[in-house]
Amino acid sequence: MTLVQMQFRSVSANPAHQTVADAMEAAGPQVCDDMTVEVALSVMASARAGHLLVCDEDGVCAGLVTPAQLAAVRDGDAYTDRTRLRDVLGDRAPSASPLTTMAEAEHAMRYRRLDALPVVDEQGSALGVLALAR
């Protein structure tokens, strides 16, 4: 498991020009997509994390999972103890560039009904997470 350390920049004076990089949180726990749902739930519980960033075998961010998502999968009819995170994520999940404006990211998150969005660099590596304030 890799943890990413972030240094936060000061928020720009004009909120209209604020980028995702100005508001994102540290990435938190990252796991590989071949991890089972049960192990991922245990990792989240022990780390007291509200989400896990999921990466493929090349270290590219494949998406983000929450305890609620994984509990729903676990309670589903198709679930087995061999169900892996890659089976839950499917295709590449949405993500944002650190240069994306906050207005664009917020619109995309609300449109897709996302509570959190991975922030990735040009190679797809996770830099942080943008979470909507409730």
TrEMBL record:
Keyword Cytoplasm attributed: no
CDD domains assigned: CBS_pair_SF (cd02205)
The keyword Oxidoreductase belongs to this UniProt entry's keyword annotation: no
Domain CBS: 31-70, 87-130
Pfam hit, one: CBS
Keyword field: CBS domain
Protein name listed in UniProt: CBS domain-containing protein
Lineage: Bacteria, Bacillati, Actinomycetota, Actinomycetes, Kitasatosporales
